[in-house]
Amino acid sequence: MTSPSIILKDVTVDIPIYNSQSRSIKKTVFGLASGGRIDKTDRGITIVRSLSHINLEIKDGERIGLIGTNGAGKSTLLRVLGGAYIPTSGNALINGKIGSLIEVSLGIDSEATGIENIYLRAVLLQIPKRIVDSQIQSIIEFTELGEFINMPVRTYSSGMHMRLAFAVSTMIRPEILLMDEWLSVGDRNFQKKAEKRLTELIESSSILVIASHSRDLIEKCCSRVLLLEGGNIKMDGTPQEVCKAYFQ
């Protein structure tokens, strides 16, 4: 059995921006591209180059931290690893089952009940129904939603909404785990439960890739750190040396 691994070969991601002559679109473009590069194709279409010729190898057992300013390319890189973005050029070779905690609320239907949403979200995460059936009671108990689990999600507070999304999203047991910041959900007591669940999830994964602005988190969780700037990997090294260079 082949060990989980990630190999990016000369990966570039260009995001086309149409109608870029309008003022509102220009604002959006410059907001998106605070670290990327704005260019035009030979057909005159404005593009934001979010990643530029990335070469990267991540092996089984590595814990990778992504740091850099907003717009540096961290989220784009995570989306390439998760298969949400296809490289404009180059190749992304991902070997292993992927689990993403980037957008935990994706697929939540405000008109459906909590239980219905557990099954809806599980479909998006490609979790078999039999697994959800076997865990449904423990998921409900974990959310602490009580009778609200049978109510439409539109009746939930934002905290209740996040607890539901978090509980079902962490059912996954992937070989490669992708995270965009550490998830903070609910009150202090629930956060303790959530952190324990996240820690167990991270420990059970073979590869972790997490983007964060927290130096403490990166130094605590990661064995290797990539500093991204303008869609490029500016530095690749230990948490201590890369964090020292960036945060100071």
Verbal overview:
This protein has 248 residues and is an alpha/beta fold. The chain has 2 domains: 5-96 and 210-247, Rossmann fold (3-Layer(aba) Sandwich), CATH 3.40.50; 114-175 and 182-201, no CATH class. The chain is 36% helix and 27% strand. A hairpin with a 2-residue loop joins β9 (224-229) and β10 (232-237). α3 (114-124) packs across α4 and α4 (129-143) runs antiparallel to α5. It is globular, with a radius of gyration of 19 Å.
CATH topology of the largest domain, which one?
A: Rossmann fold
Would you tell me the overall average pLDDT? 89
Based on secondary structure, the structural category is alpha/beta
Shape call: globular
CATH secondary-structure class of the largest domain: Alpha Beta
Q: Can you identify the CATH superfamily of the largest domain?
A: P-loop containing nucleotide triphosphate hydrolases
Strand order within the widest beta sheet: 6-7-8-4-9-10
Number of helices: 8
CATH architecture of the largest domain: 3-Layer(aba) Sandwich
How widely separated are the two ends? Answer: 43 Å
Oligomer: single chain
Percentage of residues assigned to helices: 25-40%
Order of helices and strands: EHEEEHEEHHHEHEHEEH
**Low-confidence segments, ≥5 residues, pLDDT <50?**
none
Total strand segments: 10
The proportion of strand residues reads 25-35%
